[in-house]
Amino acid sequence: MSKRFKVGAVAGLMVGALVAAASAAPAAKGGAALPSGVTSPFGAYLAGRHAQEEGAFAAAAAWYERALSADPQSPELISRTFLMEANAGHFNRALALAKQQLKLDNSDAVADLTLLIEAAKSGDKAQALARAEALPDDGLHRYVGPLARAWTRVAVGNLPGAEAALHDLDKFDGFAPLEDFQLGLVYDFAGNPAKAEEYYQKALAAGGQVNWRLAEAMANFYERHGRLDEAAAILARFVKDNAGSELAEAARGYKPRATTTPLISSANDGLAEALFDLASVVNRPETTDLALIYDRLALELRPNLTVGQLLLADILSDQGKPEESLAVLTKIPPNSPYAWSAQLRAAANLDALGRTDEAIAQLEAMTAKEPGWSSAEIQLGDLLRSKKRYAEAADAYTDAIKRLKAEGMPPRWSLYYSRGIAYERSNQWSLAEADLEHALELKPDQPLVLNYLGYSWIDRGEKLHRGLKMIEKAVELRPDDGYIVDSLGWAHYRLGDYASAVEYLEKALELVPEDPTINDHLGDAYWKMGRTTEARYQWRRALQFKPDKEDIKPIEAKLDRGLPVTTKAGGG
C-alpha cells in the first residue's frame, strides 16, 4: 500500500466511526457518495476491512474499489479488491485485476484459475492448459491443480495426460471417490464406456454410500447405453441409502428412459463439474471461502449447472446471507429435478429473513402438492419446533412418519428423536419417552438421544442410575460437545453431587463459554458449594449472553436472593 494509505496508530481512532457504515457498500459502484463517517479513500479502506471481516464480500469489494480508484498501484488494495470481487462472484472485475495480482504474487491460484476460466470460455485451449499447469501443488489450493490439468488436457486431446493428472490425487487421503468419479467422467466423455464404467464402479465402492451426483452420472451412462434396468437399480440404491432426503424423493419418481444427452458434453463442462465437485468436498466451516470461489468459477463456466446453484445457495445461507441465497434459488426453473430442493432451501431462507409465515405457507403448500413425500413435513416440523410451537411440530413429524411408512421407506431415528423432543417440550412425556426409546432402538448409542433421554429421566427424578449411565456414554462418545458435558454436570447436580457437577460444568464452559444455560448451571453449582461470589458472577454472565426470555427473571431472582435452601435449582 502506498504511504498515504498505510494504517498507522490513527486508524484505531477511526474504526469506531466506521463500523456502522462499513457493512453496507456504496449504493452504486464507482460513483456513490461515501456515507456518514467515511469521508476519504482511507476511510473506504477501513470500511472494506471491516466488511471483509464480517464476510460481506460484495460490500468489501465496493469499498476497496473506492480506495483503489484513488491509489490504483497499491499492492495491498489490488490483492484485497481482487479477492473480494472473486468471492462476491463479480467475475469480470476479478478478471480485470487477475493479471495485476499475478505480478504481485505469481503463485496466486485464484488469479490463475480466473484467467484459466476466461481462456476456456473463449476457446483458447492452449492458454487454459498453460494456466492449469501453473497451479500450485501445495498450500490451500493443492487439490485443484490435478482436476484442472485433467480437463484442460482432455480439451487438447491428451487423454493419458488427463488420467495421469487425476492420479496425482492419490497422495491425498480421502480423495479416491472423487478421483474415480472424475476418471469415469473423463472416459465417458472420451467415448470409452468400458473404462468409464470401471471407474464409476470404483467410485461407488470407494464411497460406500452412493451420493446423488454419482447416481445421476451412472444412471445417465446406463440410459445412453440402453441399460435401463441398471439405471433404475442405481437410482433405487440411492433412494435406499438416502431415505427421506429431498433428492431421494425426486429420484424415487424418476423413470429411466433411453437418452443420448450426456451429463458432460464438453471439456469445459467437465472442468465445471470438477470445480463443483471440489467445492462440495471442501465445503467445511474452515474452508468455506474456498468452496465459494470454486463453485462461483464452476458457474461462470457453466451457468446452468443446477447442482452448483444449489451449493452456492447453501454456502451463502451458511455465511448468514439468506437474501443472496434466495436470489440464487429463484434462478432454478420449476421444471428442474432440483426444483423441490430449491423450494425447501427457499423456505429456510424466508424464515431466516423473518418471513416465517411465508416459509410455513410454502412448506404447507409443498406437503399438499406431494402427499407421498416427507421432506417438506420434516422441515416444517423443524421450523415449528424452532419457534417453540411444539405441539404443531409433533403433528408435522407424525405426518412425515406416516408418509414414510406408506411409501415403504425405512424408519429414521432422527425423526423419532425430533418428535420425542417436541412431545417432551409440549408436556406429553409418555409419548416423548416412547419415541426417544424407539430412536435408540433404531440407532443404539446415538449420543444425542442418549443425552436427551438420560437427562430427561434425571430431571424428572426417574430411572436416575440408568439416566446417568446414558449421559456418561454420550460424553464418552462426544467428549468435546459442551452441551452434552453440561448435561452430565447438571445430572450430577440434580443427584446432589455438587463437586462432580462443578467439575463437569466448568469443562462444559470451557467448550462453550458464551452459552447462558451453562453459565447459569455453573452458578447454581457454585452456590451449592458455598462459592457465592463466583455463583453471582456466573449468573451475571448468563444474563449477558441473552438467555431465553422465560429464564431471565429466575436468574435475576437468584442474583437478588441466591438459591432457596429447600428448592431445586432452576434451569435444565
How much of the polypeptide forms β-strand, as a percent range? under 5%
Here the CATH topology of one domain equals Serine Threonine Protein Phosphatase 5, Tetratricopeptide repeat
According to DSSP, the number of beta strands is: 0
Overall form: globular
Low-confidence stretches: 1-36, 566-572
Main sheet, how many strands, which sense, barrel? Answer: none
What is the count of DSSP helices, taking H or I runs of 4+ residues? 31
Report the mean per-residue pLDDT as an integer: 90
So, CATH architecture of one domain?
Alpha Horseshoe
Calculate the terminal CA-CA distance, rounded to whole Å: 54 Å
Q: What oligomeric state do the depicted chains represent?
A: single chain
In short:
This protein has 572 residues and is an all-alpha fold. 70% of the residues lie in helices and 0% in strands. It is globular and about 80 Å long.
Please provide a written account of the structure.
- The protein is mainly alpha-helical and 572 residues long.
- The protein has a domain at 1-106: Serine Threonine Protein Phosphatase 5, Tetratricopeptide repeat (Alpha Horseshoe).
- 70% of the residues lie in helices and 0% in strands.
- It has 31 helices and no strands.
- The longest helix is centred in the last third of the chain and has 17 residues, at 390-406.
- Mean pLDDT is 90; it is low at 1-36 and 566-572.
Keywords, separated by commas or semicolons:
single chain, 572 residues, mainly alpha, Serine Threonine Protein Phosphatase 5, Tetratricopeptide repeat, 31 helices, disordered N terminus, disordered C terminus
